[in-house]
Amino acid sequence: MNVQTWIIRDSYDYPHLCKIGKPMKKDILTREDIDVIVKSFYDKLLVNPLLSPIFTDVAKIDLEKHLPLIADFWAFLLMNQEGIYSRNVMSPHLSLAKKTTMEKAQFDEWLKLWCETIDELHEGEKAEDAKYRAGNIALMMQHKIKYMI
């Protein structure tokens, strides 16, 4: 774990190595990192009163099948793993939006939980990219739901 360090001198001019600040989190580097993010995110999402009904009652997702697909999607986006995800990401969301409310409040909550999860586990360029891309995905989905349904 990276820790910011400084050499300081006391009144007797003896050098001391002190650790200053909190340990830095690592960036998103591996597929395993993505798997942990997705699992942690869904742990939060599935107890969230605004979002849980969409996933459990309406979509009735099977977590054992769903989580690896979501991790594949994020691995494709963040790690440039070509061919790992080839599904149409919009199609199931458009179908779902015909059955339940999927508006700004739901997308804002989804994005808030995603960003909180990333921030709790990682920091760095890929972590920031994951949050940025999630924001764009939320905006794109809201737009398509509004104008395509």
What does this molecule look like?
With 149 residues, this protein is mainly α. It contains six helices and two strands, in the order ββαααααα. It has a two-stranded antiparallel ribbon. The chain is globular and about 45 Å long.
TL;DR of this structure?
The chain is mainly alpha-helical and 149 residues long. It is 60% helix and 7% strand.
Mean residue pLDDT: 86
Percent range for helical residues? 55-70%
Helix-strand topology string: EEHHHHHH
How large a portion of the residues is in β-strands, by DSSP E?
5-15%
The residue ranges in which pLDDT falls below 50 over 5 or more consecutive positions are 1-17
Q: How large is the radius of gyration?
A: 20 Å
Number of helices: 6
Inertia-based shape: globular
Described by strand count, sense and barrel closure, the largest sheet is: 2 strands, antiparallel
Please count the beta strands (DSSP E, at least 2 residues each).
2
Helix-strand makeup class: mainly alpha
User: For the terminal residues, how far apart are their CA atoms?
Assistant: 48 Å
Strand order of the largest sheet: 1-2
Q: Main traits of this protein?
A:
149 residues, disordered N terminus, single chain, two-stranded antiparallel ribbon, mainly alpha
Task: Walk me through the topology.
Layout: E1 5-9, E2 15-19, H1 31-45, H2 52-58, H3 63-79, H4 90-97, H5 104-121, H6 125-148
Antiparallel strand pairs: 1-2
Helix pairs in contact: 1-3, 1-5, 4-6, 5-6
